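Table S7 (text form). Paired inputs.
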Amino acid sequence: MDADTAMRMLDDREREVVHRLTRLLDDEASLRHDRADAIADDEHDPEGSTLSGEWAQVDALRRGAEAESAEISAARERVAFGTFGTCENCGRPIADARLEVLPFARRCISCAA
C-alpha cells in the first residue's frame, strides 16, 4: 500500500475517532451535569441504569477512542519512516485488506492471532 493511500485511510479513521470523542465528551458533560443535579439515590433506583453505570460506560468508550487516536498517530509515524504495513513481529507485509479494516495494525494476521 502506498503512503498516500495509507494517509487517506488514517485521515478517514481519525475523523471518525474525533467525531466519536466529541460525542463522548458531550455525553460525559451531560452526565456530570445530571450527577450534580441528582439528589436521589440512583444506585438503588429500580427504574434502570444508574448514572454511575452510564458514567463508567462512557468513560470506557472515551478511553478506547483516545487509545485509538494514539494508535493512529503512531501509524502516521510508521508511514513517515516507511515501515507502515510491515509487521512489527515477523517483518512480513500486513495484508491490505487488514489495513483497510484496521489502518493502524502493527502485526500481520498470523502474528496477531
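Next pair, protein 2 of 2.
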Amino acid sequence: MIAVDIIKKEKLASGTDEIPEQAIISSITAAVSEQRLPAGTKLGERMLSDLFKCNRANVRRALSTLATMHVVQLRPNRGAFVSTPSPKEARDVFEARRTIELTLARSAIKNARLQDITDMRTTIADEADARARGDKPAELRLSRQFHMHLAAITDNQVLEKFLSELTLRTTLIIGLYNKLGSSNCAEDEHSRIVQAIEERDEKQLILLIDQHLEHLESSLDFERSIEPLATLAEQLNA
C-alpha cells in the first residue's frame, strides 16, 4: 500500500475532532508503529496539506514535532522523511530503553494491581492471536502496548513519554534490520515478566526485562543493505 493511502486510512480512523497538527502526528505515528509506513518514505508537504485539508504551516508544525520525536528526519532542500536509524542510533536506543525500562520495572512491581495483571495478560493473548493469524501490524501494536502498559503502571508520565518515543524508534529499527520485521517479543517472555510482577519478584523481573531487550537487539543484522525509499513518486510508480 502506498504512503498516501496508509496515511489517509489512519486519518479516517482517527476521526475529525483533532486539530490538523495533531491529526497528522497521530496518523503518521500510528502507521509507523505498525510498520505500515517504512523508514525512508518521503512525507510531502503538499500531499499532507491536501489530505488533512490544512495549510502548509500546519504541516510544517506537525513535521517539526515528529522530528523532535525522532520519527521524522528533516533534510535541508529535500524535505521530510520517515526516519532511517543508523546502526549506532539503534544501539543507543536499546541502551536507553534498557535503562528506562529497568527503572520503570522497579516502580511497576510496587504499584501493579490485579487489574493491571489481568490487562497485561489479555494483551499477551491478543498478541499471540495476531501472531498466529499473521497479522504483523496488530502484533507490533500489541507488543508496544504491553511495554507501554508496564510504563503506565508506574504513574511516571515523564518516563512514560520517553518510553513511548523509544518504542516507536525501536519499531523503525526492527523494520530496517530484522529480516522478518516482526516484534520479536516472544509470548513466553512477556508472560514471564507478568508473572514476576504478580509475584513481586524484583530481582527476577529485572533479569527478565534485561534478557528480553537483549533478545530483541541480538536479532538485528546491522550488516544488511538498507535501501530507503527516496520519494513518494517512487512509491506511486512502483
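The longest helix spans residues 87-111.
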